[in-house]
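Deliverable D4.2, example record:
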Amino acid sequence: MGFLKEFKEFALKGNVVDMAVGVIIGAAFGKIVTSLVNDLLMPLLGSLTGEVDFTNLAVTINGAEVRYGNFIQVVVDFLIVALCIFLVIKAINKAANLRKKEEAAAAQPEAPAPKPADVVLLEEIRDLLKEKK
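Output generated by the structure prediction step:
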């Protein structure tokens, strides 16, 4: 029975649950980025470069076909996905930092109002009287 209890404690720890949520959100975000690359960026890039498609590039060596073009295409896709993720994360971090600065500015207490001159004078008189005792 100790094994099941130990496993339950492990599985229900905050870090494991947070990681599971992160993986699920990451997978969904990956689909968004993949769609962005495949449906928006690659067609635009293809139209700018004259429909360059590396997937059909290959060389035959001793009867074996080496499809290096597909590798090039996957590398280009990866670089575009990595750039998109970098830009999105950078924008998210910038927004988070801006929000933190606004919260910090709102949390700072206001400076106390300056004391009227008569109050300052009375405090000085009080201090002088204390020194004479």
